[in-house]
Amino acid sequence: MTHSELNHADLRRELHALHLELPKSGLVAWTSGNVSARAGEQMLIKPSGVTFDELTPESMVLTDLNAQVLEGTLSPSSDTATHAYIYRHLPEVG
Predict the structure, then answer these.
(1) Which of 3, 19, 87, 91 shows the greatest Cβ crowding within 10 Å of its Cβ?
(2) Handedness of CA 72, 56, 35, 15 (dihedral sign)
(3) How many angstroms separate the CA atoms of 20 and 62, rounded?
(4) In terms of DSSP H, where are the helices of 2-75?
(5) pLDDT digits 0-9 by tens, 40-86
């Protein structure tokens, strides 16, 4: 199943679970580092400044592929523009 086939709620849960693995693996510190996921012509990404233990599926920020926020009350990661650029230019990346 591709990410575009998942609904946003399922994708939020999957992305949350992936984020919880980052500190366990020693790949991130404090609030730095994140994973995003393409959802068709949109993406979900970790909010800025939220620690991994405070993160919830619902706190993920939905943006378009130009990094404009579509859903969410928190600011998206400072890496959002980079992730959006990759998704725009590499359509095979999900």
Answers:
(1) 87
(2) negative
(3) 19
(4) 8-24
(5) 899 999 999 898 889 999 999 999 999 999 999 999 999 999 999 99
Residues of the chain by 3-state class (helix, strand, coil), percent to 5: 35, 20, 45
What 3-state DSSP class applies to 88? helix
* Residue 36 DSSP label: E
Is the whole model's pTM more than 0.85, yes or no?
no
Alpha helices in the chain (DSSP H): 8-24, 80-89
Number of Cβ within 10 Å of residue 52's Cβ equals 20
Cβ-contact 19, 35 below 8 angstroms: yes
DSSP lists the bridge partners of residue 36 as 45
Q: Is 3 helix (H, G, I), strand (E, B) or coil?
A: helix
